[in-house]
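Problem: given the chain below (280 residues), write out its structure.
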Amino acid sequence: MMALNIEGLPIEGIDRIQITLNPRLKRYIDYTKKINDYLRVDHCFFYYTRTYLSIQAQRLNPTKTRPITNIRYSIAEAIFDLIKQKVIVLPVILPLSVIFVHLEFFVFNIREIEFYFDFRQWDIQIVSMIGLSNYKGTIYSGDYRSSINRPKRVSRIKIYNKAEALIRENHIRRETITSNPYKQRLEFRLTMYNSPDLSLANLNGSATDVIQRYSPYLATVYYRQFFGKVAVEDFEHPLFGEIQNLAAEGKLRYRGNEIVKDKTHTENTKEKQFFDTLDK
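Solution.
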């Protein structure tokens, strides 16, 4: 039987994916609409407007109600939900199947991916803080820079108490939080600014498939940032075990053979025809 974390999800999986929506969709988006069901739409303006869609773990990992999940399909579902909830108000209602088949038209790029691994508190020990940062109880890898020393830079790895974070958020019963043993979270946070090839092409398959695809890169990051400083004793996490085993081989560089190279999004003829048809 698969072990579950405090939120009722597998103890290793994808915590969040943030995509940048195609700028073509900007004029159809109602930014005043509130969204539930683990989706969030944000936008920023810096010379041009970018719209971001964040999809949370509950939509990305297998659960009782979602036993099998293809990540690309989950992204298509999220966009379809925005259309159903009239956050994206298109001239026509597109079927989910059309969005899935033409997903590259809707997704401008993958901005962030977060992989999580939840452990019992005694499974993780900090051996040395050399090269690490402790900010408000969260242990960050050496590439971290807080907003106190601007500009802020996120770390590729961090360890924190997930139970305490959920207690502060106050959307899960405290009894459920305290009774679950998997309170300590180790998290990889890959962004388009700190990691290579966060492309849609690499998100085909389940959360397990995606993590395994990125494991050689995650192992390199782990070896450079945490290996020898953080001790993890555990036999319940096959995906993290693979990352740890690869790191133990002492890989300092990632060769980039396992994941598909990202390409800058440029509008092709089919994409232009697709959106021109919507506008008619």
